[in-house]
Amino acid sequence: MTNPVNNNQDYTIKLTNKNFNQLSSFINLNFGIKLPEVKKIMLQSRLQKRLKELNLTSFQQYCDYLFSSEGQKNEVVNMIDVVSTNKTDFFREPVHFDFLANKILKNYTNTTQNIFKIWSAGCSSGEEPYSLAIILNEFAQYSTNFQYSIFATDISTIVLKKSVSAIYNEDKSNLIPLNLKRKYLLKNKDHNKKNVRIIKDIRQKVKFERLNFMDKRYNVNEMFDCVFCRNTLIYFKHEIQEDVINKLCMNLKTGGYFFLGHSESITNMNVPLKQIQPTIFIKI
Ligand SMILES: C[S@@+](CC[C@H](N)C(=O)[O-])C[C@H]1O[C@@H](n2cnc3c(N)ncnc32)[C@H](O)[C@@H]1O
């Protein structure tokens, strides 16, 4: 006998192969993210939210809307928000933060009064650029005249909004060493709300902008001492990774440092970088 109150029904709207191919080619071409056949279910589940919000009942309707001129203007931004993978953490891959503090900054001589600049490219919800700002701020407290700034970019507007708010779940902040946590995080005055906020002095040091790695050229007019581009290129094809690294290097000073994520490399790429340690490179 069937149960009249069946809450286990599957209301998932199915993504056909035809619509999957249309969407994955569009995403790959415009955002670099590769979506092979094995990612079909993932794409289907991530886009359910968009279909629901738009009151659509099939992926064909979604594609018709997305590829219309109105959809190109209004929906592409929302689509990439749900399609991009934004996993991140404070002080993720700590070896990079140790290297910054103990190798780069320790040997940094500030003779020119230049501002020390880092680009966090693919910054997600801000944990990476704020971790960098904390390290630089610690250094600034013991070095006279040391000034710094962080530029942080991402394609997803949702994560950029979260970055600017700088409010995080308290659990997430457990990855920040306790002494730094006490110094750089504010607790919510309402103790029922388990969230923390990065202090204003640090927030003010980080500038967030939307930037698509697939743009022909990045309209960035600054030169950086370090570029962090970690756990982002892994979603791109080899030749696109190479192209993005070359474009990022145009804004990296000669002798500046480039950081990739733990599972990324520059093997077989024609890029102006020399490896000095796994995932850490210097611009030549
Ligand atoms: C997994 S997160 C990595 C965050 C951080 N760098 C880290 O290592 O923790 C990858 C980020 O790359 C961004 N991204 C993906 N495609 C992009 C593109 N075409 N242009 C710019 N950012 C992109 C995503 O939105 C996402 O926030």
Tell me what portion of residues adopts beta-strand conformation. 15-25%
Gyration radius over CA: 21 Å
Largest sheet strand order? 6-2-1-7-8-10-9
CATH architect. name of the largest domain: 3-Layer(aba) Sandwich
Structural shape: globular
CATH topology tier name of the largest domain: Rossmann fold
Order of helices and strands: HHHHHHEHEHEHEEHEEHEEE
Q: Write out the CATH superfamily name of the largest domain.
A: Vaccinia Virus protein VP39
Total of domains: 2
Bound compounds, each kind once, are: S-adenosylmethionine
Would you summarize the structure shown here?
With 284 residues, the chain is of the alpha/beta class. Helix content is 39%, strand content 19%. It has a seven-stranded mixed β-sheet with strand order 6-2-1-7-8-10-9, with helices on one face. Strands 3-5-4 form a three-stranded antiparallel β-sheet.
Describe the fold and architecture.
By secondary structure, this protein is of the alpha/beta class. It folds into two domains: 17-83, Orthogonal Bundle (Chemotaxis Receptor Methyltransferase Cher, domain 1), CATH 1.10.155; 94-283, Vaccinia Virus protein VP39 (Rossmann fold). It is 39% helix and 19% strand. It is built from eleven helices and ten strands. The chain has helices spanning 17-31, 40-53, 59-66, 69-74, 76-83, 94-105, 127-142, 157-165, 178-184, 200-203, 238-249; strands at residues 115-121, 147-154, 167-169, 185-187, 195-198, 206-210, 224-229, 252-260, 273-277, 280-283. A seven-stranded mixed beta sheet has the order 6-2-1-7-8-10-9, covered by helices on one side. The mean pLDDT is 94. The structure holds S-adenosylmethionine. S-adenosylmethionine (SAM) binds next to loops.
